[in-house]
Structures are given as C-alpha cells and as structure tokens.
Amino acid sequence: MKPSRYARMVRTMMQIIKRARIPPYLHRKSNHVFTVWQHLILLALRQYEAKSYRRFSDFLHECIGIQQFLGLSRIPHHTTLQKAAARLTHGILIRILESFVLQARIRKMFAGIDSTGLSYGQASYYYTKRFKLRRKFVKISICADMRRQIICGIKIRHRRRHDGVDFVPLLERAVRLAPISTVVADRGYDSEQSHIMTESLGIRDTIIRPRHESLPVYKTKGLHRKNMKRGFDWATYHQRSKAETIFSVIKRMLGEHIMSRHIITQNREAMYRMIAYNCYRITRNYGVILGWFLRGSGF
C-alpha cells in the first residue's frame, strides 16, 4: 500500500537529518524527553500545515501515525516547540537544507537565483492601506536547482538591500555542494562583477538579463555584459521562471506571512519553511524516488 504524504515526509526528514549528522541531543545533560530529530520533524510539519504552535499541538493529538513513527510518548506542549525553534541554531538548519542536494542526487546543478518577500504578521492589504501603515517584509534570496526545483542556499535580510550583494555568496555555498554548469538570474543581478566571479567559480554559462536592453552594445559597460548582449540565450534564460514557481508554491501552500515577532525567530521560521518545501518537493514524485531506490538496491 502506498504510504501517505505525512509518512513519506516524516521518513524523508529522518533520512535528511541523519545525512546531515545532527545529534539526537544537543547536550548530554538535557532532559531527554524529546530528541532534536523529533523537534526538527515536528517544526517542519508545522510549516507544512501552516498552523500556529497551539493549533499544531492540538493537531498532533489526532495524528496517531505520526506519534507512532516518531516514538512520541506524549504530545509536546506548544511552548516546548517554540523554545525548540529558537534553540536550534542557524548552522544546523543550513546543514539540513544543504543535505537535500545529496538526497535528490543532484550531480550537476542548473542554478537559478531570485528573491522574494514574506510579510510580517497577517494584516490585510486593505487594513494597511486604510490606516496608512508601512508593509514590512522579510527578504529571502535563494539559490535553487531549476531541474529538480530544490532550494540549495538561502540568505535572509530584514532591510532593503540590492539583490546583487547576495549573488556571489549564494553561488559560493552552492558550488561546495555540487558543480554548477549554468546559472540564470534576472536583471536585478546584472553587473560585470557578477560575471567575473562566476568565471572564477568555474561556472561555464552565466545568463543574466541585461538591465538596459534597448541600450546599444557599444554603450554597454563591461566585456562580459557586451558578449552576453550579443548572443543572449532566451531559451535557457526562461528556465528562471521555475524560481517564481518555487515562491508560488511556498506562498500558496505554506503561507506568505511570518508570524514570529523577533528577528531570530523570524529567521528560524523562514528556514523551517524552506526545509518543509524541499521535503514536499522530494516526496511529491514518490514513484520516481522509489524507482531510484529499487534500482540502487538491485531489485
């Protein structure tokens, strides 16, 4: 019988956590009531369900299968999950996010870089317009594989900054996971320095849409930007739209609002949301993954 979506997600998260070599306990003197693995899986499922901590704790009482699979002797209180979300460091979550690249067996990456914003709170657009409130947001820049649509790297900012400052750091982290053959980005990342840095990282094709397309080539600054304008590959560049697909799935399924109040917990919530998305994306094509497993096992 085909396992349910929750069973596949829990099983995949357990494999990812073990691949990232996360210890079951952060300290030898912890109370050992719940493991770090259980907390990570529950926090990812909370993002997948788009529920508050209180509602998710009530939701777990009805999920007998999740309780049995995780070996929960009791349901954690909602404050336990809140404290666990703030206690788990950014480094642990980055290791888990990057482990999805190995889990998806990405040998050569077709990278796409883009950014979006997640709103603070859940105030409606009419409310903020009516009372003339400034709509603040958390800016998230990601580097993702366009073939598998798996997020490989993330950068979170709380102030307005130019997109170009996050281009090279995201690529540097992605290159450590898998070699990058092609990178695509929109005109917000167009600069001569971006092309120079991608060459130094060993990336063969860099396709960034020019900022001023109507400007003649002889007036365009930079040798790399001139060459890109002369033979711009529109067919490959249009693969960048899959980055918009990633953001669309995250906002429609997991929510477009950050409910946390403090900067640290807001960053954690955004990270858990990206992890929940990656887990959903991998388990979505269950038949393909099962075929890979069977072929690798010799069946």
Describe what you observe in this structure.
The structure is a single chain. Mean pLDDT is 86; it is low at 287-299. Helices cover 52% and strands 14% of the residues. The protein is an alpha/beta fold and 299 residues long.
Features:
single chain, 299 residues, alpha/beta, Nucleotidyltransferase, domain 5, 2 domains, six-stranded mixed sheet, 14 helices, 6 strands
Biggest β-sheet: count, sense, barrel?
6 strands, mixed
| CATH arch. level architecture of the largest domain | 2-Layer Sandwich
How many discrete domains?
A: 2
Distance between the termini: 18 Å
Q: What proportion strand?
A: 5-15%
Helix content: 40-55%
Quantity of strands, as a count? 6
Cα shape: globular
Under CATH, the topology of the largest domain is which? Nucleotidyltransferase, domain 5
Protein structure class: alpha/beta
Q: Could you give a quick summary of the protein structure above?
A:
With 299 residues, this protein is α/β, with parallel strands linked by helices. The chain contains 14 helices and six strands. Strands 1, 2, 3, 4, 5 and 6 form a six-stranded mixed sheet that branches.
